[in-house]
Amino acid sequence: MTEPVVVCTFGGTSQAGQDETEAALTLGRRVGEARGGELRWLVLGSAPVELDAIARRHAVVAVDHAEDAKLDTAGPDARVEAVAQYAAETQPRLLIFNQDFDSRRIAPRIAARIGATAVMNGLGIDVAETGGLHVISAAYGGDTNVVYAPDPSRPCVVALMANAVVAEPAGGSAAPPETRSVALDLSAVEERIEVLEPARTEGPRLEDAEIVVAGGRGLGSPENFKLVETLAEALGGMAAASRPLVDEGWIDSSRQVGLTGKITRPALYLAVGVSGATQHMAGCAAAKTIVAVNTDADAAIFRHARYGIVGDCLEILPELIRAAAQMGAG
Amino acid sequence: MRIVVCVKEVLDPDAVGAYALAGSLVIGDDGKTLTQTTIPTLMNAYDEQAIEAALRIREAGVECTITVVSIGEDATTILRHAVALGADTVVAIPPPAPDPDCHAVSALLSAYVRSSGGADLVLCGRQASDDDQGVVPAFVAESLGVPLVDIARSVTAEDTSDPQSLRVTRVTPDGDEIVRVACPAVVTVSSELGEPRYPTMPMRMSARRVEPEVVTADELGLSGADLEIRVGTVRQTVPTVKGDCEFITGDTPADIADRLVARLVEDRVLQQK
Predict the structure, then answer these.
(1) Domains along chain A?
(2) What is this structure's pTM?
C-alpha cells in the first residue's frame, strides 16, 4: 500500500451522485497511473447499491468501507474524524471528494487535521514532470482557472466540481477489488452542532429536473419572472434563476443556479435574460442542450448555447408558452 | 462577547466578470495575476456581510466588541471601511512574504485570535470572490479547536444577555437548516444574509483618520516555517468557450417560438405528446 490515491464518497445514491462518483474514480485512477499509486475507494456510511460494479469498472484496487452509526447522521464532526483516522492508517497521497454542500465543509477540515493541503473547486489534476500534482481549479466564479502546485511532501485534499471530469471506465477486465471494513473509533465524537430544524426539501429538486427554464436580470422585473414559471410548467420542467434575482429577492435561493447555488444537468436548459456569467454557467454547463434568449447578440450565454434567440424575452416568452402548450395538446 | 471578523481585499469580481464577458480579461506577464489596473479593489462582499452579521448581533442587544482583522500589505482602505460600518477595532497583519496561501493566512489569523485573548465568535465570509476557495474558515476552526458552522443567512445569540450559544440559519440545497452551536465557534456568512448597510457620512468621515493596529508575524510568534507556502500558484488562465450557437430567426416572435420548439422536437430534446 504505497501512497494510494483515495476517492472518498458518502451518502447520495442518486444517478447524479453515481455519475459524480465515477468521474472522481476516473480522475483518481488517472493520477494513480501517472504517478504510481493504487486507487482506493473510501465509502463512509451506507454503500451505493452498484458499489461492486462501479469499483470494477474503474479498476479500484480496494474498497474501504467505514461504517458507524455516527456516520449515518450526516454530522460533520464524525465524518471529519473518520477520514482523519482512515488517513492516519492508509497514508493517502491524494484524497478526492466530489464537491457538494456537505463535502465542502468537511474536506478542508480534514486537510487541516491531517496536515494536508487543500484545493477546492477542482477541475482536474495533472501530474507534473517532477512527479508533483498540478491541481486545476476555478477562480473568480469560473472566469479564470488557476493551476496550483500543492507541496508534494504533504497529502493533498481536492474537491472535484460536478461535471468537471467525464467518467470513463478503465477498460479491460479488472480483478474484483479487495473489500475491507475500516476499523474506526468514533466513541469520543460528539457533534458540536445541534440541528434544531432540519432542512426540508419541498417538492422536486432542481438538480434532478430534466427541463429547467432559468430567468436572469434581463427579465427586468419580478412580475416578468412569472412568465419563466409558466413556461417551465408548460414544458413540464422547473423554474430557476441566476444569482442577481435571488439577491434581489425575486425568488428563493433554493432555485439559484451557479457556483454558489445548484449544479443542474437537465436535458434542456432554457436561459431567458441570463447574460451567461461564468459563475452561473458553472451550474448549467452540463445541460445536454442550452437554449438562450437575450436582447444582446453578444451576450456570453450564446457562446454556451446550442440554439439562440436574439430578442426581447417579454415578446418571446408568451409565444414559447403558447408553442409549448400546443405541443402538449397536439 | 468578543467577535473577530476576518476580511480580505479582492479585485472587484463584477469588474473581472465584465472583462471576462467581453473577452478582454488579461493575465499579467508573470502568467499568474490579473494585472489590469482598471479593475478596482474592494472588501470581499461576503466578508462585508460577515461584518453586517456582527453588527446585527450587537444591535440585537448583545454586549460585544467587534474586531475586524485583515491579512494584507496595505489593508488600510478596507479596514477604514470596516470602521465606517461600525467595527470597534481594526487590525492589519502584513504577511511576511507576498501572496500568502490559505495555510499561511489561516496560521496568521488563528495566532492572532489566540494571542489577543481568544474570540467567542469568529465570523468570515463563506469564500473570497477571487480564489473562491473558502478553506480559511475551516483551517482557523480546526486550528482553534472550535466548531465551524458554514453558509449562514442569519447568526443570533440564543440569549442576548448571556451569549453562550448561537442560533444559526444555514442555507442548504434543501432549504434552510437551523442549528445551535456553543461559543466559541467559527461561522461563515453567505450572500443570503442580505445587503450590508451603507456607512453613514459621519461614520465615513471619522473612519478616515483611523489607523489600523499593526500586528506582525513575529509578534504572533510565527516563523518562516509556520508560514511557508504549501499551495503555490503555477499559473492562471482565462478559459475559452467554443461557441456553436445556431440562431433561430423569424418574422414574428410567434414564428421564432414555433421554429425553436420544432427544432427541439426534431433533436428529441422535447417530446410531442
Answers:
(1) 5-181 (3.40.50.620), 206-329 (3.40.50.1220)
(2) 0.91
